[in-house]
Amino acid sequence: MTQQYEAVIGLEIHVELKTNTKIFCNSTTEFGGDPNTHVCPVCLGLPGTLPVLNKKVVEYAVRAALALNCSVANFSKFDRKNYYYPDLPKNYQISQYDLPIAEHGYLDIEVDGQTKRIGITRLHMEEDAGKLVHQGNIVSTPYSLVDYNRTGVPLIEIVSEPDMRSPEEARAYAEKLRAIIQYTGVSDCRMEEGSLRCDANVSVRPVGQKEFGTKTEIKNLNSFRALQRALAYEIERQIAVLEAGDRVVQETRTWDETRGITLSMRSKEQAHDYRYFPDPDLVPLVLDNQYIDFIRQSLPELPDQRRARYMDDYGLPAYDANILTLTKEMSDYFEEVLKDYDNPKTVSNWMMGEMTRLLNANGIDITECKIRPGQLADMLNLVDKGTISIKIAKTVFEEMFNTGKDAEAIVKEKGLVQISDAGAIAAVVDEVIAANPKSVEDFRAGKEKAIGFLVGQVMRATKGKANPELVNKLLREKLQ
């Protein structure tokens, strides 16, 4: 982005609620299944059917709204959003328009060490549409198939204020929002399954200008990386259009992950184009303050609270606390390990180091990890007892990751028990000193680094099994 322009970004995030049944009928919300098998006359919009609101959807929506610091409305209603698209069997979507269930929230993000508050305009309930299965690229597909299994799955749509000024801020906001929603337990927020989907509205304007520029909406963003890349591309595209003397067209665009570009889909509709009107089949929703307060009091510990606890109670650095609380699964895993191994910083180091490295290399998240929290605790206890060294522990950990076996079993199978017998190590130390006179001379001349080389030679000779502290001690004694 050039210094002459600034971006203005707002996000619309749709979250599928993990209720057992759909928002207005008893069809299952289970992910997967053969196409068009999780449907019934109500969610298919067949003549003569009537919707009945799922009480759990309301509870989950209120829970999410309170976690996002929103004001929950005592009175809200459902509206029909009218438009034609093949994945919408009724030709309208039941949503909320002018009287949503919640408004005026916020969350705080941190980018480059700076904290910023991002406003949340509204949170409302609605039903999901079906899914079009394109036979190729969405723009050039020769035909598409439709699966109505997702039709009627309950959603909350969370609309931010246009407070973000960079792709990095937008990504931080989306990741923070996902974490908060996960902690509340109302959704698993799995982007790969479509239970969290993000649309981005973005415009650019000359620095110092108060009026917004013409915005475009980017759809088809199925990862936080895609969100950040798509915004970066679209910002540069809009700046290039303006600098060429043209004007940006208000439209909906899609993100092409393979080519790394956004593509035009259709002109952007205005709200009046949807011909909203109150749904005549659903009565208004009235919530009393006692109900809202009951849900407020039942909220679990949220990411910011847990992050503060990790710093205050465990003495973890802010960086560690941020990483560990970014997803509920990672944080819960950390908590489980601590039940059997009471050293938070050591656990944090292993989870952010070896654990994250192997998860990323295998393209999985911690819920798919074969190492159970208790197994990691057992391995760390073996290190503390001196049974294995840190170096051997890394080998053991990788084997545990690949096989799910216990650390003790792997150590026995592979003969990895650490050598702590001073006599056995002393013999190897003597051999290394005799074989490396130059390093010995360097150390005696005051070159401290030479001792590191000699320790490495002993560890190599013992295949990493020698106790490193004992090796260091014996070397210094013999050289001095």
TrEMBL record:
It comes from the Bacteria. It holds the Pfam family GatB_Yqey. Residues 332-479 form the Asn/Gln amidotransferase domain. One of its GO terms (molecular function) is asparaginyl-tRNA synthase (glutamine-hydrolyzing) activity. The keyword Metal-binding does not apply. GO terms for biological process: glutaminyl-tRNAGln biosynthesis via transamidation; translation. Keywords: ATP-binding, Ligase, Nucleotide-binding, Protein biosynthesis, Transferase. Its EC number is 6.3.5.-. It catalyses: L-glutamyl-tRNA(Gln) + L-glutamine + ATP + H2O = L-glutaminyl-tRNA(Gln) + L-glutamate + ADP + phosphate + H(+); L-aspartyl-tRNA(Asn) + L-glutamine + ATP + H2O = L-asparaginyl-tRNA(Asn) + L-glutamate + ADP + phosphate + 2 H(+). InterPro entries: Asn/Gln-tRNA_amidoTrfase_suB/E, Asn/Gln-tRNA_Trfase_suB/E_cat, Asn/Gln_amidotransferase, Asn/Gln_tRNA_amidoTrase-B-like, GatB, GatB_C_1, GatB_Yqey_C_2, Gln-tRNA_amidoTrfase_suB_CS. PANTHER family: GLUTAMYL-TRNA GLN AMIDOTRANSFERASE SUBUNIT B MITOCHONDRIAL AND PROKARYOTIC PET112-RELATED (PTHR11659), GLUTAMYL-TRNA(GLN) AMIDOTRANSFERASE SUBUNIT B, MITOCHONDRIAL (PTHR11659:SF0). NCBIfam families: gatB, PRK05477.1-2, PRK05477.1-4, PRK05477.1-5. Allows the formation of correctly charged Asn-tRNA(Asn) or Gln-tRNA(Gln) through the transamidation of misacylated Asp-tRNA(Asn) or Glu-tRNA(Gln) in organisms which lack either or both of asparaginyl-tRNA or glutaminyl-tRNA synthetases. The reaction takes place in the presence of glutamine and ATP through an activated phospho-Asp-tRNA(Asn) or phospho-Glu-tRNA(Gln). Belongs to the GatB/GatE family. GatB subfamily. Heterotrimer of A, B and C subunits. This is Aspartyl/glutamyl-tRNA(Asn/Gln) amidotransferase subunit B.
